[in-house]
Amino acid sequence: MLSAGMLYVQRLAGGLRANSRRIQPNPRTIMKKLAILSILALSLPAFAEKIEGDAVCVKCNLKETKVCQTAIKVTKDGKTETYYAVNNDIAKKFHDNDCKETAKVVAEGDVVEKDGKKTITLTSIDLAK
What we know:
Layout: H1 4-14, E1 16-18, E2 23-25, H2 27-43, E3 49-57, E4 70-76, E5 79-85, H3 89-94, E6 103-114, E7 117-127
Parallel strand pairs: 5-7
Antiparallel strand pairs: 1-2, 3-4, 3-6, 4-5, 6-7
């Protein structure tokens, strides 16, 4: 049997409540903790991924669209993956470097895969040295 002091300490530490036979976790406290953790997990920003590869124009080089757009072809473990850049200000300013010919680049941004197609929202892109 637990003393009143021990029961108080356990309540503070883990949100426990006393039952006549045993100590059980308080369901309200557990649900509050789960709700807080869920909100925190959903509110975390995506981590920026740094990639190195060849910047190409999706229209001029890849012939996949009717509008110019930057894409970065990255070779990993012998496989070539194409990251399609979202047309934000950074991608539009850089596009003159890769429209007619390829350019070696180092890019950083948030990568999202949707329908088997990887897109990157560029936060920075520079010519490789």
